[in-house]
Amino acid sequence: MDAYSILNAVQCLETDAVLATILSVNGHSYRKAGAMMVFSLNGCKLGSISPGCLEADLQERIDAVNGSGKSEIISYNMQSEEDPVWGESIGCGGAIRVLLEPIDREFRKFLSEALARMNSGRSVHLVRTIYAESIQYSIHPQGDVFMTKALTSTSQETDPAGGAETMRSDWVPKSRLLLFGGGNDAQAICRIAQAIDFQVIVADWRVLPDAETRYPGAQLVSGTGRMITRQLGIGCDDYLIICSHHLQRDREMLEQALPLRPKYIGVLGSQSRISKLFEGFAVTANVYAPVGLAIGADGPEEIAVSVAAELVSVRARARNECRRGVRLDEDCGVILGGWSEPKNGGGEAAARAVAGHYTRE
Description:
Elements (H helix, E strand, L loop, with lengths): L2 H10 L4 E11 L8 E5 L4 E3 L7 H14 L3 E6 L5 H4 L7 E9 L2 H15 L4 E7 L4 E6 L1 H4 L8 E6 L4 E8 L3 E6 L3 H12 L2 E7 L6 H4 L4 E4 L2 H8 L6 E4 L4 H11 L6 E4 L3 H7 L9 E2 L11 H24 L22 H10 L6
């Protein structure tokens, strides 16, 4: 679960709970610094911070942390020589520090504020200043997030003089994925995209029968490409997959989407069909045609796996670019989009796109 899902779940809890956050990692770890999970006092667990080797030990500490009302930092040494201590031959190879925080009234107030900002489409910069006996919290607006080096991750600093440790977490809203076309391919992609924390919208030029049953949890929209893009306000942070299997409708959506420069435009279909779709259009670097990683996928479920892997790759690369301070162009497209730079500029890029021969890093 991502930060948004964790925060949303916390608001629904009716019992006391403790938030576990990976504070730092030295060496290998299953999850990175900033990963979170929630332990409720009734035994319910949300999210994960390890393959399962730490959760049982953390669960034993939850009552004490909640009862004391004080946070606690737990250190785990997962080096292979420590395996006899655990008795499970874990051998993860890293040292991990986990912060346990009782979700009291004050902390819940900050988490609620963070969620409200994310619900409005803004990123959140939460700062914890960790002292020996207490933690102070502060929230910074979206503009501050993009001035930091870390995005959707956690960094920490220690003040030698005051003995305080600062933990900075930058949280972003769920990325929106628009699936244009309500066929079997979209149904399979919808399921797996929701599992990897995309907010899915299914759109079609028709009103789809049984759509709420076929696409549970997805937002449903119908209309022309122009109507859909305007209604949803598609922009440079969004992801789009064109998969209606109707050539003219797909061209109409493509014509509307290309100038908006969403982060990702995936197009489902054969290379010959893609050539017809892009005829007369300038192909930008955010286009993935044909959609999905080349893993020899066959059928809706396997195609959905290849598409999900590509979505994860594009999303991670975008976050890393923001983390490194890479600037985006004025149209919000990532410069070169991670592909090798075409020798002959845009003309060669277009030719390779419609042929499905982009070389990705």
